[in-house]
Design brief:
Structural class of chain A: alpha+beta
Largest sheet of chain B: 4 strands, mixed
Helix content of chain B: 25-40%
CATH architecture of chain B: Alpha-Beta Complex
CATH class of chain B: Alpha Beta
Order of helices and strands of chain B: EHEEHEEEHEEH
Radius of gyration of chain A: 12 Å
Oligomer: heterodimer
Distance between the termini of chain B: 21 Å
Radius of gyration of chain B: 16 Å
Strand order of the largest sheet of chain A: 2-1-5-3-4
CATH topology of chain A: Ubiquitin-like (UB roll)
Number of strands of chain A: 5
Largest sheet of chain A: 5 strands, mixed
Number of helices of chain A: 3
CATH architecture of chain A: Roll
Shape of chain B: globular
Number of strands of chain B: 8
Helix content of chain A: 25-40%
Structural class of chain B: alpha+beta
Order of helices and strands of chain A: EHEHHEEE
Strand order of the largest sheet of chain B: 1-4-6-2
């Protein structure tokens, strides 16, 4: 699946998008896999209260299933308007 | 219902006039525009707005549709920019047309509250001294959703 990062998550991880091969069942499982990769991921995901997630471009939470999902995006709380 | 996400500036006067024209059954038009604000010390060089291209349009469409479902509205307009903007530039506007002003005001406020916290935009400030910082979401913006 494609994993996208925005705002300071993109800056800390150092890329806007990557393709990830994973068997993670939920968003939380995917986050655990990413954290285990490298320090930059562990740092970006150190405080999940500061991270929001969208699955296939719909806002959701970390319990969301990844079954059949094509795109997961992580970003800080939004500041539009 | 026109929902636009664009990098270029928009003409607030022309947009408001076009939105308000030609309506015979709408007694109230409310418009709001958000402007890049230098917080008083002249230190802000630019505001940069990042967004999530695939999701932004859908999120705005949904917020506008929700407003139309909740209030008696004739029409809704949302324009939101992304990219780099100088202080004083207009970031976004909303307009709501309704038979009566209460619906138009409330719908415009609802649109603003949801655009702030539920549309995938992120603001980054660039200061004249070369520093940058992501604008943090405020608790009161999240709390504002609770009243709807």
């Amino acid at each position: 699946m494609d994993v996208l990062y925005f705002a300071w998550l993109r800056e800390r991880i150092g890329l806007p998008k990557e393709t990830v091969q994973t068997d993670a069942a939920t968003v939380a499982d995917l986050v655990d896999e990413l954290r285990a990769r490298e320090d930059r991921y562990a740092m970006a995901f150190s405080d999940l209260s500061a991270v929001r997630v969208a699955v296939d471009q719909e806002l959701t939470d970390f319990d969301a299933s990844l079954e059949g999902v094509r795109e997961v995006a992580f970003f800080p709380p939004m500041t539009g308007g | 219902m026109r929902i636009v996400v664009q990098q270029d500036p928009f003409d607030f006067g022309a947009e408001a006039e076009a939105f308000a024209s030609g309506r015979h059954d709408m007694g109230a038009i409310v418009t709001f525009t958000g402007v890049v604000r230098d917080q008083g010390n002249g230190g802000l060089d630019a505001m940069e707005i990042e967004h999530y291209p695939g999701m932004t349009q859908k999120a705005l469409d949904r917020i506008a549709a929700e407003a139309k479902a909740r209030w008696s509205l004739g029409d809704v307009l949302v324009i939101h920019r992304y990219g780099r903007m100088a202080p004083g530039e207009k970031i976004m506007m909303v307009a709501a047309a309704a038979p009566h002003r209460k619906d138009a005001f409330e719908a415009a406020e609802f649109l603003m509250d949801y655009l702030k916290s539920r549309a995938p935009f992120w603001k980054k400030e660039h200061t004249r001294s070369g520093e940058t910082g992501w604008v943090a979401a405020r608790d009161e913006d999240e709390d504002a959703l609770g009243r709807w």
